[in-house]
Structures are given as C-alpha cells and as structure tokens.
Amino acid sequence: MICFHGYGGNYQITTDLKKSGLIDATLVSFNFPDHDLQEKSYDPHKASFGTIQELLPALYVLKKCIIDEAMDSIDLYGRSAGGGVLINLIATLNSDRFNSELQQIGIETAEKKRLLNAIQNGLVILDVPLKSVEEIIAFRGSNTELEILAEHYRDNHMRPLDAVALLHGLSLNIIIHFQDPDEIMSNRDDKIYIEKINVVNQLGTTAVIIGNDGGHQTVHQSLWQFYSEKLAEYSTCSLVSAKL
Fold first, then answer.
1. pLDDT of residue 36
2. How many domains does the chain have?
3. What range does the domain containing 217 cover?
4. Percent of the chain with pLDDT over 90
C-alpha cells in the first residue's frame, strides 16, 4: 500500500499506521514537495498544492512499484490533502493532461495503462479527503494562504470535487471515509463528493464509512476495521475460486 500523507505531514504516516496495530500490510511512504509545513514557513505562491508538481513524487513511486517491480495490483491510501492528490493522480493517468510532465519521469501511454490496471486491481482508500479549499474557507474563514491555494487548484483543474469526473470509464474499488464531525475540513460537501464518485464509478465498487473516532487528525479505527473485513472477503473469494 502506497500512503499519501496530508498537509503538514510527511513519510512517517506509515509509522503512525503501523503503531496503531490496525493494519497489517507492506506500507510505502514518501514526502510531497510541501511537507512538514507546520514546522516551517513557506511562500504559498510557490507551493506545489494543486499543481502537477505535487503529483509527480507519487507518480514516480507508483511507477517504481508497478513498472519496475512488475506488480499487477496496488492499494493506494490518501489522507486529507493526500486524498485530494490520489483523486488527481488517477484522473491524470486517465486523461491526456500533463502528458509531457509524465513522459519526463518515464510514464508514456503504455505505462499509464499498466498503472491504471494495477490501481483497478487494488483498493483506493480516501481517508477524510480534501474536496476543495473553498469548503475549508467557508468553514474556517479566509486568509491569503488559503485563497492562493484555492486558486492553484482551480487554475490547474485539480479541485478534487471536480476532478472526480475524470475517473470515468474506470472500475475502481473505492473506500471513502469521513469523520462526522470533521473539525478541520467540515462536512459541507461530503454528500456531493460521495454522489459524484458513485456516478463516475458505476463500473466499480464504492463503500462509504462515516466514523466518529476522534476527529480529522486521528488514526481512524472505523476505517481500518472495514478495510480488514474487506481483505477477509477477498481472501475468501480467492479461496473459493481456487477450489472451483
């Protein structure tokens, strides 16, 4: 499972998951260009949020796992802003957006197809995902940083709430988890986000978990309990298929 950390986080997201004792999987992590923001100041005008530069590290790691290591299935976990990246990453692979940037890291048409196949064979886990910066502004109020970041997402057509539409034609196994209440993102657009994914992912499966495990920032037991049950179902189905 490749783990996409959220705003202000870093590669240690996997450490937190392992320490929880709720997940037993091989976890892969990395840093996005703008990480550990809670520990440093930065110029939001130069931030990678909502740009192809934000996606490239994740795409590179995905390529290393699937193309270089010849894996035919992968689980992807995106937390908070990392959930927004996850939607935009799949949308980018499923369209002609940013082809030149992808080619620079060795992802051509054939590689895009292999990456998408492996993603469709695994699970896509969206944990309290970013839907839009505008939702946060409506909940927490506006400031210069948020307004600039919202503009980045809009200008690059990377508002996750809108980018969901670019998943058309795929058969994804999606798990969406929201905390209610969510003290960081709010829950204003949860319903419309779920509805949009249900519409675009009609060839796949979409499961929704609404949890109350301590809010946005915690490791969410309700999500990982469902994940464990899902894996058990897959194991049972594989066993039955093998016997048949």
1. 87
2. 1
3. 2-243
4. 86
Q: Residue 183 CB: number of other CB atoms within 10 A?
A: 12
What does the pLDDT average to over 213-217? Answer: 95
Q: How many CA atoms lie within 13 A of 228 on its CB side?
A: 10
CA angle 41, 46, 47 (to 5 degrees): 70
Six token digits for residue 53: 């530069």
Nearest to 79 by CA among 16, 144, 145: 16
Question: Strand 123-127's sheet: what is its strand order?
Answer: 2-4, 76-79, 123-127, 173-179, 205-211
Concatenate the DSSP letters of all residues of 158-224 into one string. Answer: --HHHHGGGGTT---EEEEEEESS-TTT-STTHHHHHHHHHHHTTTSEEEEEEE-SSSTTS--HHHH
Domain of residue 44, CATH code: 3.40.50.1820
pLDDT in tens, 131-183: 999 999 999 999 999 999 999 999 999 999 999 999 999 999 999 999 999 99
Mean pLDDT of 222-239: 78
